[in-house]
Description:
Elements: E1 3-8, H1 12-23, E2 28-32, H2 39-43, H3 46-60, H4 65-69, H5 73-104, E3 108-111, E4 113-118, E5 121-125, E6 131-141, E7 145-147, E8 160-161, E9 175-179, H6 183-194, E10 198-203, H7 214-226, E11 230-233, E12 237-243, E13 246-251, E14 256-259, E15 261-264, E16 268-270, E17 284-285, E18 288-289, E19 302-304, H8 315-329, E20 343-345, E21 351-355, H9 358-363, E22 368-374, H10 379-384, E23 390-396, E24 402-408, H11 412-424, H12 429-434, H13 445-462
Parallel strand pairs: 1-2, 1-6, 2-3, 6-19, 8-15, 9-10, 9-15, 10-11
Antiparallel strand pairs: 4-5, 5-6, 7-16, 12-13, 13-14, 17-18, 20-21, 21-24, 22-23, 23-24
Helix pairs in contact: 1-8, 3-5, 3-6
Amino acid sequence: MNYDILIIGSGPAGQHAAWQASRMGKRCAIIERKARIGGAGLQTGTIPSKAMREVAYLLSRTGGMRQAIAPDARSRHGLLSDAVRRKEGVIAQQESVILQRLLRHGVALIPGEASFMDAHTIQVTDASGNSRTISAEVIVLATGSRPRRPAHIPFDKKTVLDSTSILNLRHLPDSLLVVGGGVIGCEFVSIFAALGVAVSVVDSHAQLLAYLSEDVVGVLTDSFLGMGVTFHMQERVAEIHREAGGTLTILESGKQIRADAVLFAQGREPNSALLKVEQAGIAVQDGWISVNQHFQTSVPHIFAVGDLIGRPSLASTGMEQGRAAVLYAFGGELHVNAENLPMAVYTIPEISYVGKTEKEVVRDNIPYVIGHAYFKDSARGQINGDAHGLLKLIVDVRDEKLLGVHIVGEQASELVHIGQLVMNLKGTVRDLIANVFNYPTLAECYKLAALDCAHQLEQLRKR
């Protein structure tokens, strides 16, 4: 074999698989078909959208922003330029860090399109059309996913956009219609609404982020309304047309919406078509690759990780999956503890959660209480001016353990890890009460919510 392990794809899952293999002394190579490394996580998804969001977030904190910039189109376009520059600067810096780390670990980088010839052999075709074959004892597939682009949607990368092409806009539209009220759609609603764009949302559900609690999503919805966003809920798109100077979207209800641009953000598709996995005997369903608990495909020495295997399709989980697959492949740990995975939605304000939702607790017939803490009731929340932030604990009445933590507000994606650690260490709500938090901090909201839970638990026992 040319290598002990070949990894196809240089995104977060592929990188962490490579680093783990190199730490175990394995001959390792990454095959990457794109001209730049990092995958969607760095180049077209996670990092660039969050970098742009940071500019929009800082702008949203200034107050009176929409009125201040709406009359001046040049100022608005300048804001987009600032966001794009920040995005490109962060990408370049992170790309350098990743490249240096891979090289320092002795990981070979092989440019080209990879496809199976058999279960141990990969054909790599470079940009000039030249091909060579490479073999390995273990192969890890980490090719990720891309935005879903239905054939009837007239994408043109200028006025009808997906979540990749919208990152390359150089002129800010006056109006934007976002089709989809999921994570990606809501994140871009935040960015463009904060930059002064008149944003509308079409979604088939009764609420945004339909799988989350109404009270948490309600805070986000109120924020969107405050930024002038309009909603068309429980509606579906029938047609989208490009017109001179903009777009016309026709809903199934007959309603018509005109906007300068449309972002279609409804789902993603796996990058598996060009791999020719059938030549290795790998089972595939609609392009998604099925794996067991060790991330093995139907061919035991071939693993798949990251977006390619479907939900939860997060960079953080992909990293852990890559590491776990390599550990198992070479006889290390049999598994990696990845219970209670944190999720984050980088909207304005942020939403983050870990564990069960209230709907899941009710479905599972678990007796529970809920403790709330509002950011406005903490000194740090008052200092930050976050009047609507909320931290919510869901606690099992039987053993007082945390079932779920849900946060909406500033630093939600950071704060959630406190609750995650308590859950993974099998702690209880009493552990949060006994802990001392810095003052003033938003983390103090954990104690306030825990005290709320304790009061309710005491009332239940009295009854």
